[in-house]
Design a protein that fits this description.
heterodimer, A: about 120 residues, alpha/beta, Transcription Regulator spoIIAA, five-stranded mixed β-sheet, 4 helices, globular, B: about 140 residues, 5 helices
């Protein structure tokens, strides 16, 4: 899986492309933890536009970031889940604790509305 | 119509993709929808991932994947020769996990996406997961 990142205020925006499974998890965790710690970021926006596959290993890595950020009052937002990817998020119950938006702009707008 | 394929892989994370793509390609011989093929990919990914992280926690092992099409059914048997499972009832509980950052949903996904699955294991000998899936289109014809 390819990962690209950019910072917007106190939020890290991560664009992913490819398949998110056991093999992708170490790089995903390493990069996100490193950048968020270095810049004191508390919110995470994950763009799934280019992600064609996710299994429970990928979901576990996302839940791990959610648990960490939730302790600091941070949010994890999900963008552009394809139907087959959304199905596993729904089955795992993650859409009950993480918001899904149709664009990065809408997610950032929601974060700003929250007074951050 | 019947067919068979056997794939043996080293228990490395970069082989998880190979296993699921092989299984989905093999399965496409039956009338599965794209959505059903995606479910097959998730189920194989979960089963192979379990072998890598649970069956062989200390050293890399071998994972065997047997694929069969028989009477409009897809049968997938995934076997390891790892540490095995002491208590099968325990691992079948949703959200049961022994690893941080893992959701314990692998078998729950297999259960949701397959028509049936069985788990057999012997401590220190290994584990076998057998999964069966029938295309929805075929089920409607039969019913």
């Amino acid at each position: 899986m390819e990962i690209s990142t950019k910072i917007n205020d106190n939020c890290l925006i991560v664009k992913m492309r490819g398949e998110f499974d056991l093999h992708s998890v170490p790089e995903f965790k390493k990069r996100i933890i490193k950048i968020m710690a270095a810049h004191n970021l508390i919110h995470l926006v994950l763009s799934f536009k280019g992600v064609i596959f996710v299994d429970s290993s990928g979901l576990g890595a996302i839940l791990g970031r959610y648990r960490e950020l939730d302790k600091k009052g941070g949010k994890v937002f999900l963008i552009n889940l394809r139907p087959q990817v959304k199905k596993v998020f729904t089955l795992a119950g993650l859409l009950k604790i993480m918001q899904e938006y149709d664009s990065e702009e809408t997610a950032i707008e929601q974060l700003n509305k929250g007074g951050i | 119509m019947g067919n068979q394929a056997h794939l043996t892989i080293a228990g490395k994370s970069n082989n998880v993709g190979l296993a699921r793509i092989t299984a989905a390609t093999f399965a496409s011989e039956l009338d599965f929808t794209l959505s059903e093929l995606e479910e097959i990919k998730v189920a194989v990914s979960e089963a192979v991932t379990n072998c890598i992280i649970h069956a062989y926690p200390l050293e890399e092992g071998i994972i065997k994947i047997e694929l069969e099409i028989a009477e409009n059914q897809l049968i997938m048997i995934i076997t390891d020769q790892g540490i095995g499972i002491e208590n099968i009832d325990e691992v079948l509980q949703p959200s049961y996990t022994t690893k941080e950052d893992h959701m314990g949903l692998g078998l729950a996904f297999i259960d949701s996406f397959m028509d049936s699955f069985t788990l057999e294991s012997n401590p220190d000998q290994g584990t076998t997961v057998k999964m069966i899936k029938i295309p929805e289109q075929v089920k409607y014809v039969v019913e």
